[in-house]
Design a protein that fits this description.
mainly alpha, globular
Amino acid sequence: MDTHFHFILYGDFDTCCGAIHEYVRQTSRYIAMNRDERNKLKHVPINHQRITDKRYLKTAICYTLRNAPVGGIPFNAYDYPWSSGPLYFRRTGLWSSPAWTIDGLVQKPSLSARRRYAVFKTRNPAFREALTVGDLVFPGEYVAFEIVEELFKTCKAFHYFMCSTKEETVESRGGQLLSLSIPIQELRQHRDEICREMFGEVRVGGLDAAQRFRLARVIRSRYLCSPKQIAHLCGLKEDELEPLL
């Protein structure tokens, strides 16, 4: 997502925490190099929670995989290229596999040492054997999809949780695992863009009540705003939003 990210990490706390901070650091570096925006993520808050319940772990995994389509991004949850969704219970080579799992995979040794460093900013020898898709490391190289498949046991169980997971189940347990807070001024810009996209209207004042509630749901899904923020953004009362969010 362009406003926040989620990771389900397996390991001790210090290792997981270090991995997330390194991800933020490298992402900030990438933005600085490619968009000339320095310290873009300097004040990004990082939130976490421990997951010790297997059923809730399944729910949290599916919540993360569903996050993009629920937020309005036009991808099937199993094909969104920025998530691990396409890796689970798939058999490479079958027609149902997304193209990027069977086409375009390249062994890194085919890249020169200079090119590898230019793309990945590391000379770590572990990267030499990994598969890439363009300039991205193939997700199967770092996602423990075998552990997830063992957790769910069957494809049927996996699909059950994908279809039955409700966003509020995760959020009620403090589930916005890793979220970025966004200034209200920026949220207003995003709100206006969504209004144009969904209703062809540039002002919230031009929307009827039903449209405002639809707008509220989309903003909640994409940006994980508080009910109070959404009420202000959509011209609604906070208590009216409780059944919807």
